[in-house]
Design brief:
Radius of gyration: 23 Å
Shape: globular
Helix content: 25-40%
Number of strands: 22
Low-confidence stretches: 1-7, 106-116
Distance between the termini: 26 Å
Number of helices: 14
Strand order of the largest sheet: 9-12-8-15-16-18-20
CATH architecture of the largest domain: 3-Layer(aba) Sandwich
CATH class of the largest domain: Alpha Beta
Oligomer: single chain
Length: 547
Amino acid sequence: MPVIPVSRTRLLIEVAPEVEPTEVAGEVSDAEEAMYRIAPSGNVRARAAQGPAAPVWLTATPASTTPDVHPWDLAHGFASQPSTRATPPVQFVEPDLLQEFVYERPPEAREMFRFGGRVCEPGAPSSDWPSREEFAWHLDDDFSQLASARELVGAPSGNRVRVGILDTGFDPAHSTLPLQLMLELQRDFLDDDLDATDPGTSGLGDNPGHGTATLALLAGRHVEPQGEPEFDDFLGGAPHAEVVPVRIADSVIHFFSSTMAEGIEYAITSGCRAVSISMGGVPTRRWAHAVNAAYEAGVAIFAAAGNNIRDGLPTRETVWPARFNRVVAICGATADKSPYFKSGFNGMQGNFGPEDKMHTAIAAYTPNTPWAEMGCSNVVSMNGGGTSSATPQVAAAAALWYQHRPSPTNIERWQRVEAIRHALFTSADKTPTNRFEFFGQGLLRARDALEVPFDTSRPKAKKDNVWFPLLNLLTGFDELSVARRRMLEVEAAQLAASSPEIIEVLPDPDVPPEQIPPDERQRILDALRRHRSASTTFHRFITDASL
């Protein structure tokens, strides 16, 4: 997954757990005399969910632009500075990357979007993929079973399950807005304010309206969309759930590592039981720690497996945070229950794999699903696509299950996450051919999941992290500081995730090096040396090292 260097790179700094974040705020300079403004990052309550050994994160924002400097070189420069009261010993530093995520652009011209001349008419389904004549067909019992599941659960008479959705914000004028949209809890981590409204920014790399559409699939209210007089029902899978809108990006292909992590941690402290994320990118240690905090707090994360174009570019593998073991990855299944994938196809299609990840993956339906159109209050097209459309369906099923199956008393909070994963996985439709390869645990069956009781016997999932074990075999690696080794491993994992050559040989960067044949180890090493996105620091190390 490509990473876009920026001219003013903020750094994310991990320091010792005993450090008090507010005591290290201020301005400092690194070893190169570059000035940074230091501030706390993340949420104290979210960190507390992980126990006393949980990491403390800070942000370091450069006081001036840093042209032509690789973000990872800035991170290494900061990590090499001597310790002071303002800058305690760092355990890890990574750049706050601007990441990319493949998403199909709207078919209409940019200048017609929202402002002025756009014709508010429903878009037609894609002819490249199977579809159905029925509007919102994905809700039916032949597919997700969301309609019958929500009918069984009904409108709660007491406490409602709360779900967080991390996306581009929402259109406050759209008719599909959830009944229980928690406007008092909305947050915008991109602009750092309390308004999660999508500003509708149009331009290269932007995708306004994405959050409005995923919000409608998650919990859209009772609607009769323009052009669909026969549909007079709830559009969302869990229309009675409380929904916390969290804006983390202008676009699904243009967002920062920090906004994703802070959004997850905000969902934890806002009382959410589940989180829906239809975005992703390359792995970061900051994301891993946010995912661990959510799991320990009993918050289940459902994240899109990702999309690719041109037969596998930029990657056909599941992206992060969906790739983490403690996150449920959502893959795509089409209207005829075949994989959202066609070899040789040049349009957008869904990601899946590697094999180890598919144990914690499930599929829901896309493309040609409902897509609420921002700027057109009553328009819902039937051209929704990508694993973005599938993800809120599974999050909705989780909300219904939580509402139907209250948690037993005297359990660990993480057991709530394992219980919902167990219910969704065991009830999923496992009949499709090549089910595990493309769909993981199977196709979503929300009504059947309600029959699965709360299981407190599930084992705890191991903690997520970002590793690249092959580096441990290289000469000189064990002589580096722990912080430097961690940083090189995370950069290596990011480079590998954006290299088709490495993915072909090493689909899972966590594989123990002894399981990789010697000739393939060398091939991976050579590919890392040739990678054009590597920092000078990484390139210098990988060039001098040998197996």
